[in-house]
Amino acid sequence: MPTSRTPARKPAAPAAAAADAIALLSADHQAVAKLHKKFERLVKAKAPASERGAVAQQICHALTLHATAEEEIFYPPVRAAIGKPDLMDEADIEHACAKDLIAQIESLSPEDDKYDARVIVLCEYVAHHVEEEETEMFPKAKRVKTLDMQALGEAIAARKAALAAELGIEPDGAAAKSRPTSRRTTRPNTAVGRRA
Ligand SMILES: [Fe+2]
Ligand SMILES: [Fe+2]
Fold first, then answer.
1. 29 Cα–ligand 2 center, Å
2. In total, how many domains does the chain have?
3. Does the chain have fewer CB atoms within 10 Å around its N or its C terminus?
């Protein structure tokens, strides 16, 4: 048994490789699905407005960061590469519909009529969109060897971080601890539709 109190130093781990674009976007999808479940549990438990509002805000923020990165960084090269303009047009329209719901939620209080319903419909709608991305768009994009998923992943991560800083939120959509945000003062929906 070794007696030394100084453990041998482990060799430095290699710098973690940035996730590729599809892994990163899929992780975002899973994070929003978890928030969706959390929100539904809160509704079922008749949780206070503040708790429901905080989760709804995180959902809206996370979707804003994700959608902006997809629209600016991921969709344009994928559209050019996969030769499926109808699929990409549908994705664009689905983003626009989600943005409308996010804008409605952002303009309401969690105590308002049908607030919870709007959040749940947004999440269900996004789940449908995500399924199409993961079963149709992403597999087609993966097959295009000229798409550099690693470089796209790095660009997506950088764009999300920059937009999160701009909006004063965490990259996962949570409110920044040092700078509490108000639903009515941050306007993430204004950024969703930006195009490169
Ligand atoms: Fe999308
Ligand atoms: Fe997505």
1. 6
2. 1
3. N
Q: What is the pLDDT of residues 36-90, one digit of tens each?
A: 999 999 999 999 999 999 999 999 999 999 999 999 999 999 999 999 999 999 9
CA of 131 to the centre of ligand 1 (A): 10
Contacts of 48 (CB under 8 A, 6+ apart): none
Distance 114 CA to ligand 2 centre (A): 26
The token pair that represents 71 in the structure block: 């629209």
pLDDT tens digit sequence for 105-115: 999 999 998 99
CA 178 to ligand 1 centroid distance, Å: 30
Residue 106 lies in a domain: yes
CA of 130 to the centre of ligand 1 (A): 6
Say how many Å lie between the CA of residue 27 and the centre of ligand 1: 13
What are the distances in angstroms from CA 38 to CA 35, 56, 60, 128?
Answer: 5, 10, 14, 18
Domain region containing 64: 21-175
* Distance in Å, CA 148 to ligand 2 centroid: 18
**0.70 exceeded by the pTM?**
yes
Mean pLDDT of the chain: 86
